[in-house]
Amino acid sequence: MVDFDLKLIEGWGPAIWGMRHPLQSYDKSDSGYIGEQEDFFMGEADYDLAKRLCMAGSDEHAKFLRMIQVWVDVTAPVFFFSEFDTYKVGTTANSQSTMHTLSKTGVTEPDIQIPWGTDQDIDMVMLNYIDALNNLVNYRYKNCEDKELKKKYFEYLKGMLPSGWRQTRMVNLNYQVLRTMYRQRKNHRLSGWSKDFVNFVHTLPFSEFITGEWPEEKTLTEE
């Protein structure tokens, strides 16, 4: 399972205003901010223009989406991030330190993403593997005073970690990057993409700008 913990979305106001620059149609803009929390409200005219730009086919037409920034904590196994890193343009990430986590807490079952409980033999193999990792951390790496030997233990640990090792990254990206990811990954055979990522996208305000799945009726208020 891949967990997405949304932290912040910003940029709706400037993005919608900038969307009207090409034709200087500012007088038709009907969006703004309401309430003490300054919640963004998208008017029908702005929504219609945004929809038409998104449906135009080219990412250049919908480039206002690049100005809508999303910050989200993603907790996922290494094999998911190896595919996520394909989308380097328009993304920034800060990740947990693997070695800091290992030396502080060791390795536990929830740290490794496999289908635990579905095959007893595989479970036993993985539990033995986890014990070997923890022994290397606790009895060799932590207590080693020889700097050169400790570097070798460090390389052993990094090399021995399975691709199912779960890590949390704070990721910053934008709606246009999300649109590309959604198009390319929504039917992926890994459930982290086809289920968890898709479900996360559908929780975002005006997710139809990303998915292209336009509702017949839409309440034009960002929640």
Task: Give an overview in words.
This protein is an alpha+beta fold and 223 residues long. The strands form 2 sheets. It has a 4-stranded antiparallel sheet with strand order 1-4-6-5. A two-stranded antiparallel sheet has the order 2-3. It has helices at residues 12-19, 44-54, 78-84, 98-105, 120-141, 147-160, 175-185, 191-202, 208-211; strands spanning 3-10, 32-34, 39-41, 69-77, 92-95, 166-174. It is built from 9 helices and 6 strands. A hairpin with a 4-residue loop joins strand 2 (32-34) and strand 3 (39-41). It folds into 2 domains: 3-94 and 167-211, Gyrase A, domain 2; 114-163, no CATH class.
In short:
The chain has 223 residues and is α+β, with helices and mostly antiparallel strands. It has helices at residues 12-19, 44-54, 78-84, 98-105, 120-141, 147-160, 175-185, 191-202, 208-211; strands spanning 3-10, 32-34, 39-41, 69-77, 92-95, 166-174.
What is the domain total for the residues?
2
Report the principal-axis shape. elongated
Helix content: 40-55%
Low-confidence stretches: none
Name the CATH class of the largest domain.
Answer: Alpha Beta
Q: How would you write the strand order of the largest sheet?
A: 1-4-6-5
Oligomer: single chain
Mean pLDDT: 89
* Number of helical elements: 9
| Strand-residue proportion | 15-25%
CATH topology of the largest domain: Gyrase A, domain 2
CATH architecture label of the largest domain = 2-Layer Sandwich
By helix and strand content, what is the structural category?
alpha+beta
Biggest β-sheet: count, sense, barrel? 4 strands, antiparallel
Tell me the radius of gyration: 23 Å
In whole angstroms, the N-to-C terminal distance is 26 Å
The run of helices and strands is EHEEHEHEHHHEHHH
